């Protein structure tokens, strides 16, 4: 008989999200919201959002592909041999007067590594806006390290100062910060080029934790011949769970619920149903 349980491993969450580090007090999160609101108000006053609206209306020409759904997350209950896809809505690119921007676009489409000049161009955009945002938090002496991932994407890691507030519970504040920075980069390039923002390698540590949570949940589902529901996670972390268990034919995963309470459910698959 199948059973379902809620899997919320305090032993994992306590590693770097203790009350003293991330969720210290309600006032800290009120300060975070106030700082981000002040920053966005300044950008609105400077005309940033009107620039996005103008660009969207005049330069972005949606193609027929725009009507297709964007695949951001997947379920491992489909094919175990299915390749992981990360599709983005494509728009017709309007060449820039800046040859560096055109080169970045061409290399992105071809999935090729960027040149040092191209990486420096993107880094200047990211660092400028990151420092501006951090200034609203009173952080003026932080360092920002840039490096590349295995897939040639750019990662910017912030270190120094009291930066726990930038992470937030389960990294939700950090994801919001990354979204803001990507908006600035896209506005400068006039096409979507994703960058990753990290704080003192939080995402590296969190990735290992989420993978460990996924494996532990799969083992529990197998032992109980039932379902295990994980704690709510961000879309990026849910995707990590799906990927971690993609090759395990004894379990299937799917996401259910509504943001911000959407979670992954790991389900035991009977042997006669395994392929």
Automatic annotation (TrEMBL):
<feature type="domain" description="R3H">
    <location>
        <begin position="204"/>
        <end position="270"/>
    </location>
</feature>
<feature type="compositionally biased region" description="Basic and acidic residues">
    <location>
        <begin position="58"/>
        <end position="71"/>
    </location>
</feature>
<dbReference type="GO" id="GO:0003723">
    <property type="term" value="F:RNA binding"/>
</dbReference>
<feature type="region of interest" description="Disordered">
    <location>
        <begin position="1"/>
        <end position="27"/>
    </location>
</feature>
<dbReference type="InterPro" id="IPR015946">
    <property type="entry name" value="KH_dom-like_a/b"/>
</dbReference>
<dbReference type="Pfam" id="PF01424">
    <property type="entry name" value="R3H"/>
</dbReference>
<feature type="region of interest" description="Disordered">
    <location>
        <begin position="51"/>
        <end position="87"/>
    </location>
</feature>
<dbReference type="InterPro" id="IPR036867">
    <property type="entry name" value="R3H_dom_sf"/>
</dbReference>
<dbReference type="InterPro" id="IPR001374">
    <property type="entry name" value="R3H_dom"/>
</dbReference>
<dbReference type="Pfam" id="PF13083">
    <property type="entry name" value="KH_KhpA-B"/>
</dbReference>
<protein>
    <submittedName>
        <fullName>R3H domain protein</fullName>
    </submittedName>
</protein>
<dbReference type="InterPro" id="IPR039247">
    <property type="entry name" value="KhpB"/>
</dbReference>
<dbReference type="InterPro" id="IPR038008">
    <property type="entry name" value="Jag_KH"/>
</dbReference>
